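Spend some time on this chain, C-alpha cells included, and walk me through the fold:

. . .
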Amino acid sequence: MKLTYHLAAMGAVMGLSLSAFSSPVTAVLKLKEKVPVEQLAQEVRNPNSARFAKFYSPKEIAALSGPSQAEYDQLISQLKAQGFEVVKESPTRLWVSIKADSTLFDQVFKTQMLLVRGKGMKAFAVPQLPTEMPLVEKVLGLDKTRRSRPRLSVMAKDPQASPGGIAPATIKSAYGFNPIYAANIDGSGQDIAVATYNGFNISDVQYFYSYQKSNATVDQVTFNGTPAYDEDSSVETELDAEFSGMMAPGARVHVFASATNDDAGELAMFTAILDDNRAKVVNYSWGGCETELSSGHKDDMAKVFSRASAQGVNIMVASGDSGSDSCQNGGVVADWPAANPDVVAVGGTTFTGSASKVSEDAWNGSGGGISSLFDLPSWQQILGSPYVKRSYPDVAFNADPKSGQAVYAHSNGKVGWLTIGGTSMAAPQWSGFMALVGQGRQMAGKSNLGFLNPIIYSLSGDQQTGVFNDVKSGSNGAYNAGPGWDAVTGFGSMKADSLLQQLVAN
C-alpha cells in the first residue's frame, strides 16, 4: 500500500500515471560476453591482426563470445519455468527476446512499469538481476516511450497516376551508374536488408520493380511478431525497398519490419538482421534526436553496430531532415543513429543537373553535425577542430523534395505515385550502390568489402576528387558545405563507376 502510494505520488511529479492494470511487455535479455564484440570488430579492422578483413559469422561469435550451450539451455528452461514466453533466440546465444505480463517482470526483475501519459510504458526502477540467472547482464527495452521517425517528406498526399519528379534514368546516368550496368553488374547474388517498422504493402514494391523493369525481389522477415499496418510507415518502408532495388535491379531485398517502434524493437530488428547474416548492406531510414536516447540504449545499440562491423555489414543510415537541429527546437543537436561511428551516415543534396551532368548544392535539411555522445573514430582524426567528436554525414545523395523522385505507395487510402524527398530517399540509393560493389568484388574474386568509412576517409585528396561529386555550396543551419568533407554532405555523392572501381580494387 505504501509502495503504491509512493509511486502514485512520484508519477504525479514526473507526469506519469501508475498502471492500474497489467499489460503484456516484450523485452530483450543481454547475456554476458566472454569476448566483447567490440574486440572482434577491432580485429577485422586492424591490418596487423590475423583476422583482418576476415569477418565473423554468428556461429563464430557464439563460440567466442557466447555462453556454453548447456549454460544457455539452463537459462531458457528457467525463463520458461518462471512463465516467460521466449519470443526470439539469437544464434550467437547473446540475446534473448522474452514476453510476459508486466506483473511478472515486476516480480522477477523487481521493476515497476508505469504509463507515461501519451507515450507508453516505462520501467520505474533499474531491473535487478536474479542470482539464479548469472548469464543475464541486462534487461533491455523496458522504455517504450521513445519512437523513431521516418526521414522522408511527401510533396503531396494524393497519389498520381504517373510518376513525377526526376526520372530514375536521369539519376542513374548523371551519377555514373550506366557503365556499371553495362559491365553486367546489377546486384545479382547480393542481399539488402531494410530495417523498418510496422506493416507495408509488398505488392506496391513488386509493382514498382515491374514498372522500372527491375529484376529485384522482395520479401518480409518476421522476428518479433506480426507488425500492424500503418500507412505513413508503409510509405517509408516501400521507398527503402523500391529505391534500393531500383539501383541494384538484380538484388534480393529483405524487409525486417519490427512490430514495435521502441528501444526493444530497434534492438531486436538489427539483431535479427545480423543473425540472419545474408545481407551485407542494411538500409535504415529512421531516427531521432540524439538527446532523446537513453545512455543504456546508446550502449546497447553501440554493441549491435560494432557487431555489424565484425560481420562485415554496412548500415546505411539517413542522416536526418532537420539540418543541424535534429530536435527541431532551435538548438544544434546531432541525429541518432546517424552519429554512431559504426554506421555510414547519408546526407542530402539538391540535384539541379541533367542526365549528362551532376550539379548539386547542399540541401538545407541535410542532417549533419557533431555528436555529443560518441567519440571521434580513428579514421576521422584527419578532420581537425572543431570536429573533436564523431562528425557526420559521411556521404550524400539527392534528397531535396524540390528535386524529388517518385515512389509507388498507398496514401490517403489510394495507391499511386508520390513524389518524395528527404535523406530517406538518399540512403536506399546508396544501399543499392553498395550491393553493386558487393557483386563487383565477387566477380573480381574478392571477399566482402567490410566497413566503408575507414576506406573512404583514408583515400588521398586526389582519389576522393576522382570518386566523389564534392558539394561546395549550401548550409544546413550551423554548418556550411565546402571543399572536401563537410558536416552537411560529407564527401558528397558518388561518381558511381569510379567509386565502384576504387572499392573493388581496395
Observations:
- The domain at 149-505 is CATH 3.40.50.200 (Rossmann fold).
- The two ends are 66 Å apart (CA to CA).
- The first strand starts at residue 16 and ends at 18.
- The chain has 15 helices and 25 strands.
